[in-house]
Structure formats: structure tokens, C-alpha cells
């Protein structure tokens, strides 16, 4: 089982961390994959470089196995981050567009209704990233944060994105690239230490946070995730939970269905989380303040119907 790290040469926030990682000991040229891509190997880790948008190459996990015979266990993408605030940031997040319907446009890749299994390393690596960034004096200049589940490319193995934001000045920062490279080096145990974030279903620390609601940077979920031993799954921000306000509906019925793809998004995120955390205790954590009363009632009712437990902050301690 190998770990695939994907970078693109057209993005400095992607290729610079990859190059910083490849400058560390032990790397050799990897197997041929396809003409326009290069690969490198170090122990069980494979770095794959291409020259397209980071969200353009679907099914790299399956394609790598078909080309090399090596089974991919997880995928880590390196990318730039953009934000309206332009604030410097280092971010970690799962991927998917589970709220989109068939036929809807896919401006950031993916597949309608799809959510990749979230990489179990997301929570542990967020905490490790904060430590490394602090030790390299990137904090408080850079915010260290999760992001909600969004964009492609399509994968079927546990996946996460590591991003540097949020403007060209910061995408090119070599100190930020070095911190991301060290996160991968230490987090995967390439230097001889223990890897960080390997899921173990036998552990008694097996509570997994499935975030529901809130803004893109998941502040109320972040408060919990920064505590040790919390695992992180999908984070469905409000925009990933389209709900049609029943007061705007022409149907006058107490039992009328609340339209929108919010149920499909929750189900897809939950099923992907179950596949990534076998044996885990998955707890939905709601950002209550982000919902109106009718939304909260509908979501908690649906979670109960689906036998998805709801967790309060103290349940994750």
C-alpha cells in the first residue's frame, strides 16, 4: 500500500512544497506513469507531478494502481488557497461536492453527489501543522485552519488537500513551502519517527467529528479539533447544505418535505466517513448558531432517522 502525493508544476504553492520534500533524503525516480507526469519514490511514499490544474486529473489513485500495480492507500494534494480576505493561511481539508445534482456545473471539479473518503490524518495533521508553523515563526502571520469539504478531483481513497494561501506573494513563500514539506516528512514518518494520524480501529480514541453547518473555515468545529485525539471527517459548511425555506413554499402542510440537496449531502458525507474510519464512532457536530430553528429541527430529525449520533463538544473529550 502506497501513499500518493500529488503536485502541479503550474502552481508555486503546490510545486514548491513538493520540491522542498524531494530535497530531503532518500528520494529516487519512480515508475513510469504517463508521458506528461514525473514520479518519485521514498519508502512507501510516491510523489506525482503533473502540469495541469490540481483539480483536473480524476481517479489518480486508480490510474496509479493500473499503471504500476501498486495499491494506493491514501492521496494528499498540494495546492494554493484563495480567499476574499487575502489573509495568509495554511489549510487542511477533505474534498467533495456532495450537494451538487447531476447536470449542475462543476466549476471546481469533482462529480455530482460525490464525497471522497476523508483522510484520517486531517485532524492529527492540523494539530501537527500548527506546531511546525509555530516553531518556524509563521504564526500569527499565517492562520492555521481547516476548510469545509469542497472541490475535486475525483478520488476513491482517503484524501486531503494541504494548501498555502491566499495571494501570489504567499503562494511563493519558501518558508511556508518548507513547513508543508516538514508536515509530510514528519507526518508520514519518513525521517524514521512514528507516522502521525494512522487510523486504528482498536484504539479507545475513536470518536470522529462529522461537521455540519457553519462557515467555510469551520470555526466551531475547529475549537474541538484542536484538542488532542479528535479525528476529523467531512465538514459540511452551510453552502453544502442547500435547504428550501418551507415558509416560501406554496404547499401548506406541517409535514411537507424541506427541499434542497441537504439530505443527499449528509448521507454522502456520512457514508464516505464510514469507509475512511472503519470501527469509528462517528458523531455529527452541529454549528447550532449557523442554523435557523426550522433548519436545525429538520437536520436533527434527519440525523435521528439515519441513526447518526449527534455529539456535543464535551462528547469529544
Question: Could you give a quick summary of the protein structure above?
Answer:
With 317 residues, the chain is α/β, with parallel strands linked by helices.
> Judging from the principal axes of the Cα atoms, what is the shape?
globular
Low-confidence region ranges: none
Strand residue content: 15-25%
Biggest β-sheet: strands ordered side by side in the sheet: 2-3-4-1-5-8-6-7
Which structural class do the helices and strands define? alpha/beta
Proportion of residues in helical segments: 25-40%
* SSE series: EHEEEHEEHEEHHEHEHEHE
The overall strand count is 12
Roughly how many Å is the radius of gyration? Answer: 20 Å
Outline the biggest β-sheet: 8 strands, mixed
> What's the end-to-end separation, in Å?
32 Å
Mean pLDDT: 94
**Count of DSSP H/I helices:** 8
Fold and architecture overview:
This protein has 317 residues and is an alpha/beta fold. Helix content is 27%, strand content 21%. The protein is built from eight helices and twelve strands. The chain has helices at 12-22, 60-68, 122-135, 168-171, 174-187, 219-225, 262-276, 293-305, and strands spanning 2-8, 28-29, 38-42, 45-50, 72-82, 89-93, 143-146, 159-166, 207-212, 231-236, 281-286, 309-310. The strands form two sheets. It has an eight-stranded mixed sheet. α1 crosses α5 (174-187). It is globular. The two termini are 32 Å apart.
Helix and strand layout, with pairings?
Blueprint (H helix, E strand, L loop, with lengths): L1 E7 L3 H11 L5 E2 L8 E5 L2 E6 L9 H9 L3 E11 L6 E5 L28 H14 L7 E4 L12 E8 L1 H4 L2 H14 L19 E6 L6 H7 L5 E6 L25 H15 L4 E6 L6 H13 L3 E2 L7
Parallel strand pairs: 1-4, 1-5, 5-8, 6-7, 9-10, 9-11, 11-12
Antiparallel strand pairs: 2-3, 3-4, 6-8
Helix pairs in contact: 1-5, 3-5
Amino acid at each position: 500500500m502506497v501513499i500518493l502525493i500529488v503536485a502541479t508544476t503550474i502552481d508555486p504553492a503546490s510545486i514548491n512544497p513538493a520540491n522542498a520534500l524531494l530535497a530531503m533524503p532518500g528520494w529516487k525516480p519512480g515508475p513510469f506513469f504517463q508521458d506528461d507526469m514525473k514520479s518519485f519514490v521514498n519508502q512507501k511514499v510516491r510523489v506525482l507531478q503533473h502540469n495541469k490544474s490540481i483539480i483536473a486529473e480524476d481517479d489518480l489513485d486508480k490510474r496509479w494502481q493500473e499503471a504500476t500495480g501498486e495499491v494506493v492507500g491514501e492521496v494528499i494534494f498540494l495546492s494554493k488557497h484563495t480567499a476574499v480576505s487575502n489573509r495568509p493561511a495554511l489549510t487542511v481539508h477533505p474534498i467533495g461536492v456532495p450537494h451538487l445534482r447531476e447536470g449542475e456545473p462543476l466549476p471546481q471539479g469533482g462529480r455530482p453527489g460525490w464525497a471522497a473518503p476523508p483522510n484520517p490524518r486531517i485532524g492529527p495533521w492540523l494539530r501537527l501543522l500548527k506546531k511546525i508553523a509555530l516553531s518556524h515563526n509563521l504564526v500569527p502571520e499565517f492562520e492555521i485552519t481547516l476548510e469545509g469539504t469542497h472541490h475535486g478531483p475525483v478520488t476513491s481513497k482517503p484524501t486531503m488537500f494541504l494548501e498555502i494561501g491566499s495571494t501570489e506573494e504567499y503562494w511563493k513563500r519558501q518558508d511556508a513551502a518548507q513547513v508543508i514539506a516538514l508536515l509530510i516528512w514528519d507526518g508520514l514518518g519518513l525521517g524514521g519517527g512514528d507516522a502521525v494520524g494512522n487510523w486504528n480501529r482498536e484504539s479507545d480514541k475513536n470518536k470522529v467529528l462529522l461537521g455540519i453547518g457553519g462557515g467555510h473555515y469551520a470555526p466551531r468545529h475547529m475549537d474541538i479539533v484542536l484538542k488532542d485525539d479528535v479525528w476529523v471527517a467531512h465538514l459540511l459548511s452551510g453552502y453544502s447544505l442547500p435547504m428550501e425555506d418551507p415558509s416560501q413554499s406554496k404547499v401548506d402542510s406541517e409535514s411537507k418535505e424541506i427541499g434542497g440537496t441537504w439530505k443527499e449531502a449528509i448521507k454522502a458525507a456520512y457514508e464516505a466517513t464510514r469507509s475512511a474510519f472503519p470501527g469509528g464512532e462517528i458523531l455529527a457536530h452541529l454549528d447550532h448558531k449557523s442554523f435557523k430553528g426550522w433548519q436545525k429541527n429538520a437536520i436533527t430529525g434527519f440525523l435521528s432517522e439515519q441513526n447518526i449520533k449527534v455529539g456535543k463538544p464535551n462528547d469529544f473529550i
